[in-house]
What we know:
The protein is of the alpha+beta class. The protein is about 45% helix and about 10% strand.
Amino acid sequence: MFNGFHNPIPPSDAELATQTLNEESSYRFPSFSANDAVTLGLSLRKRFRASSRHAKGKGLVISIQTVAGHTLFSCTVGDLGGISGVGDVSLDSWACLEGMMSVVKRTGHSSYYVEKGMAAMGKTPSQMGIQGDYRICGGAFPVWLENAPCCPIAIVGGYSGSSVDDHHLVVNTVKDYIKKMMKDSNPPPPPPPAAMSPPQRPNVPPSETDRESLVSNKHVFCNSCPDRL
């Protein structure tokens, strides 16, 4: 029965792929150093720890690497195992994350874009020639520089088992960090200088010479006036 309400139609795989491609074009770093990688990784960890997914017991593995494979940051949010034998993360989590980052190295695009792009075309990884230790799911995002459009220089990756959540977690953290970098590099202009008032003349009593001049001028003025009597 129609009650006047309807659920919004979710975006198609093609629309999600286009959106992700726009994110890759928009979120580009003015510079990227090892210190940036550490700060970005800690921001990613902090954001996940504040999420409802972490409150429900989910864990996350994070890695930031150069495209050459040099690890700049790596950490785990959660425990590998507990008394019950069940942990928030596992050794397989790291294998999945490495497979996602290999997709970025292979294609130059985020793993979420590759996933949605393949789904939009109705292709499988084997049909696209992606075989071996690759993991086609969201969570690995390329680090591009504004002045280097030839290829990404690094990869930011996070894996917790949810493709769309991991992608949004990484992208939003990257977006906010770039915004902070741009704000720090462009400080607000200094306030304009205060208007200077003209100097005031000191209140100095007239000298004897000035008094005599005033008296003389007064006499001249009075002598030039007509007789009013």
